[in-house]
TrEMBL record:
<dbReference type="GO" id="GO:0005829">
    <property type="term" value="C:cytosol"/>
</dbReference>
<dbReference type="GO" id="GO:0106322">
    <property type="term" value="F:S-(hydroxymethyl)glutathione dehydrogenase (NAD+) activity"/>
</dbReference>
<feature type="domain" description="Enoyl reductase (ER)">
    <location>
        <begin position="10"/>
        <end position="366"/>
    </location>
</feature>
<dbReference type="GO" id="GO:0080007">
    <property type="term" value="F:S-nitrosoglutathione reductase (NADH) activity"/>
</dbReference>
<dbReference type="GO" id="GO:0106321">
    <property type="term" value="F:S-(hydroxymethyl)glutathione dehydrogenase (NADP+) activity"/>
</dbReference>
<dbReference type="GO" id="GO:0046294">
    <property type="term" value="P:formaldehyde catabolic process"/>
</dbReference>
<dbReference type="Pfam" id="PF08240">
    <property type="entry name" value="ADH_N"/>
</dbReference>
<dbReference type="InterPro" id="IPR013149">
    <property type="entry name" value="ADH-like_C"/>
</dbReference>
<dbReference type="InterPro" id="IPR014183">
    <property type="entry name" value="ADH_3"/>
</dbReference>
<dbReference type="InterPro" id="IPR036291">
    <property type="entry name" value="NAD(P)-bd_dom_sf"/>
</dbReference>
<keyword id="KW-0862">Zinc</keyword>
<dbReference type="Pfam" id="PF00107">
    <property type="entry name" value="ADH_zinc_N"/>
</dbReference>
<dbReference type="InterPro" id="IPR011032">
    <property type="entry name" value="GroES-like_sf"/>
</dbReference>
<keyword id="KW-0520">NAD</keyword>
<dbReference type="GO" id="GO:0004022">
    <property type="term" value="F:alcohol dehydrogenase (NAD+) activity"/>
</dbReference>
<dbReference type="GO" id="GO:0008270">
    <property type="term" value="F:zinc ion binding"/>
</dbReference>
<dbReference type="InterPro" id="IPR002328">
    <property type="entry name" value="ADH_Zn_CS"/>
</dbReference>
Length: 368
C-alpha cells in the first residue's frame, strides 16, 4: 500500500512529505494507522545528525497513537480495530530483561530496532524500491506503519488519540521516572531540574504519589506558572542564586530525598546529585546529554550515601504500564491537555521542530 509520510532524507534537512510504499505485516507484525503523533527532542536529536545510531533516509517519530488495521501470522494480543500506543521500548515478557524485576529494557528486538529494520532484518518502507529505514521501531511520522506485536500497548478505546499519543514517550518518561524507577514515597522532598515537557511530567508524577515538597530549578522564570499548576511548591532560578547546590541544601535543611535531571546537561546532572541528602538521597538522570559527554562528581558523594541512577521510558514496561497511564489520564489523575501547546497537520511537521528549537512549545502534536 501507499502511505503519506514525513521522510528524513538526510541529517539537518527539513522533513519531506511524500508517498511511501508500505509492505503489509509479516509474522508477528501489525499494521497500524497512526492517528496522532508527538514531536519529541529525540526526533530532533536524530534529525540533527548528532545521534551516533541515526541513519538516513528514515521515517522518524516515536510518540504516537492509532488503530490496528491488519495483523500478520501468529499475532494474538491485538486485532483489527484495537487502539494502540507504539512502544520504542517493547515488552516481550520472555527475555532475561523482561524476566528481571529491576529493568524495563526488553532486548528482544534491540539489535534490529537500532539498525532501523524489522526483526527479520528488512524494512517495510520503500520509495521506488529503495528501502527507507524505520526509527525506534515506531516511525510514527507515517500515517500507516508496521510494528512488531511486542511493541504495541493495547489501550482503552474511549481515550483521545490527540492526547494519549504523548504517553508514548514524554508523559511516561517523566511520570514513570517518579513512580516506577525511583518509587518516590509520599511525603518526600523532590527537586526537578528543567521545567520543560519532561520536568512538568516529573512534577505531576511527584504530586500524584504524594511528595510533600516539589522544588523546580530552571533559568527561565516564564516556566513558573505552569509548573505551579502541575504541583511545583518552590522555584529556584539557577541564575539568581550563587550556588544552586548550597541553596537547595539550605532550603531543605540538608538536601532532597530525590532529584531528577530533565535538561540533558552534565553540569546540572552533577548539581542534581550533589543536592541530594547525605545518607539516602537519590538522583535520577532523564535528560539525554550530547554525544561523547561525561558526568563527574567526587566519589565521596556516593560513599556518603547518595545514589546516582538513570531511567529510560520511565522504567515502564510498556504493554503492562502504558494502559494504566492511559487510565490515570482518563480518570483525571494526570493532566496532558495543558502540555500540548500546538497541533498541526503532517505537512506542517517542520513547524513543530522550529517551535521546539525556539523554546515556544512544550509539546507539538501532528494530527493525521
Ligand atoms: N539550569 C536550569 N535549567 C535549565 C538549564 C540550566 N543550566 N538549561 C536549560 N534549562 C531549562 C530550560 O529553560 C527548559 O525549561 O531546562 C528546560 C528544558 O526543557 P525542554 O527544552 O522543553 O526539554 P524537554 O522536552 O523537557 O526534555 C529535556 O530530556 O528528552 C530529553 O533530550 C531531551 O535532554 C532533553 C531533556
Ligand atoms: Zn521521545
Amino acid at each position: 500500500m501507499k502511505t503519506r509520510a514525513a521522510v528524513a532524507f538526510g541529517a539537518a534537512k527539513p522533513l519531506e512529505i511524500v508517498d511511501v510504499d508500505l509492505e503489509g505485516p509479516k509474522a508477528g507484525e501489525v499494521l497500524v494507522e497512526i492517528m496522532a503523533t508527538g514531536v519529541c527532542h529525540t526526533d530532533a536529536f536524530t534529525l540533527s545528525g548528532d545521534d551516533p545510531e541515526g541513519a538516513f533516509p528514515a521515517i522518524l517519530g516515536h510518540e504516537g497513537a492509532g488503530v490496528v488495521v491488519d495483523i500478520g501470522p501468529g499475532v494474538s494480543s491485538v486485532k483489527p480495530g484495537d487502539h494502540v500506543i507504539p512502544l520504542y521500548t517493547p515488552e516481550c515478557r520472555q527475555c532475561d530483561f523482561c524476566l528481571h524485576p529491576k529493568t524495563n529494557l526488553c532486548q528482544a528486538i534491540r539489535e534490529t530496532q537500532g539498525r532501523g529494520v524489522m526483526p527479520d532484518g528488512s524494512s517495510r518502507f520503500s520509495i521506488d524500491g529503495e528501502p527507507i529505514l524505520h526509527y525506534m521501531g515506531c516511525s510514527t511520522f507515517s500515517n500507516y506503519t508496521v510494528l512488531p506485536e511486542i511493541a504495541l500497548a493495547k489501550v482503552r478505546d474511549d481515550a483521545p488519540f490527540d492526547k494519549i499519543c504523548y504517553i508514548g514517550c514524554g508523559v511516561t518518561t517523566g511520570i514513570g521516572a517518579v513512580a516506577f524507577t525511583m518509587k518516590v514515597e509520599p511525603g518526600s522532598t523532590v527537586a526537578v531540574f528543567g521545567l520543560g515537557g519532561i520536568g512538568l511530567n516529573v512534577i505531576q508524577g511527584a504530586k500524584m504519589v504524594g511528595a510533600a515538597k516539589i522544588i523546580g530549578v530552571d533559568i527561565n522564570p516564564s516556566k513558573v506558572p505552569l509548573a505551579k499548576q502541575f504541583g511545583m511548591t518552590d522555584f529556584v532560578n539557577a541564575n539568581e542564586v550563587e550556588d544552586v547546590v548550597d541553596h537547595l541544601i539550605q532550603l531543605t535543611g540538608g538536601g532532597v530525598d530525590y532529584s531528577f535531571e530533565c535538561i540533558g546537561n552534565v553540569t546540572t546532572m552533577r548539581q542534581a546529585l550533589e543536592c541530594c541528602h547525605k545518607g539516602w538521597g537519590e538522583s535520577c538522570i532523564i535528560g539525554v546529554a550530547g554525544a561523547g559527554q561525561e558526568i563527574s562528581t567526587r566519589p565521596f558523594q556516593l560513599v556518603t550515601g547518595r545514589s546516582w541512577r538513570g531511567t529510560a521510558f520511565g522504567g515502564a514496561r510498556g504493554r503492562t504500564d502504558v494502559p494504566k497511564i492511559v487510565d490515570w489520564y482518563m480518570e483525571g489523575r494526570i493532566n496532558i491537555d495543558d502540555l500540548i501547546t500546538h497541533t498541526m497537520p503532517l505537512d506542517k511537521i517542520n513547524n513543530a521542530f522550529d517551535l521546539m528549537h525556539q523554546g515556544k512549545s512544550i509539546r507539538s502534536v501532528v494530527l493525521y
